[in-house]
Amino acid sequence: MDKEMLKEKVMHGDDNFPIGIHKTDIDKGRDNILYLHWHEGFEYLTVTKGRAVFKVDDLEIEVSKGEGIFINSNVLHSAHSINEEECSFFAVVCHPAFLSSYINDCINQRFINPILNHSLYFPIHLKKDVDWQRNILLLLTQVYDINKEKEFGYELLLKSKIYEIWFECIKNAKKSINKGSNTSYKTERMKVVLNYIHENYFNKIVVSEFASLVHMSDEHFCRFFKAMTHFTLVSYVNRYRIERSCVFLSQTNKKISEIAGDVGFGDISYFNKVFRKIMGCTPVDYRLSQ
């Protein structure tokens, strides 16, 4: 299967300026914040309200207001709320090309590639009580403000701040300790499963088909999937279906019953029920709000 299909579909910036900066507000009552996904860009997330649990590969990290987290290139990650509390955060996502030179110079070789290819690492949970991590958090806030104001030449200033952040990271990085192949193996199997969901979410969910993709028994697969995503297979696929339906609701004039069928719900009543549970409103209200 084509691993590229697993990538997040959102474009972070553009080819001329490959960085995306956005803020997300999660209302009270929502359990899921970020669905399990990955992208080529590396990412810094800063929590500005409440707290959340971020799952990065096999690590689960509770991040509170004023703290942040670093997610390296091509790493599976997701997030969920704690007790369905309100939560807000902003993300800075950079394609590796944003820092790299057109030639593979000493900057790339010594300071950029070693982190991106995981041969160097640093603590990914950024806390206020550690000086260099606090510096990164302050710089990230400056990046967010610079991007928001967009004054003349802001691109130069913004890029210089990203380099300052990277300098703090590389200065405090150490050689990676080989954790063994188990984490990587589980991650790669999960990517195969996500790929299959993205390509077949509108079809009937058959556990045995998913289990056979990764050579597991049905029971073992269900445990594996729940451990990796915090959702049952049916619950996760339904959430992905609702996410896709939101795109159709906001970007097309299709009838709601047609959209429900397109994303895999054969029963419009069940679609409405699941949509309200996940989104906190009806499909009609969601469309009107866009």
UniProtKB/TrEMBL annotation:
It comes from the Bacteria. SMART domains: HTH_ARAC. Coiled coil: none annotated. The keyword Transferase does not apply. InterPro entries: AraC-bd, Homeodomain-like_sf, HTH_AraC, RmlC-like_jellyroll, RmlC_Cupin_sf, Tscrpt_reg_AraC-type_HTH. GO terms for molecular function: DNA-binding transcription factor activity; sequence-specific DNA binding. Keywords: DNA-binding, Transcription, Transcription regulation. Residues 191-289 form the HTH araC/xylS-type domain. Pfam families: AraC_binding, HTH_18. The keyword Transcription applies. This is Transcriptional regulator, AraC family.
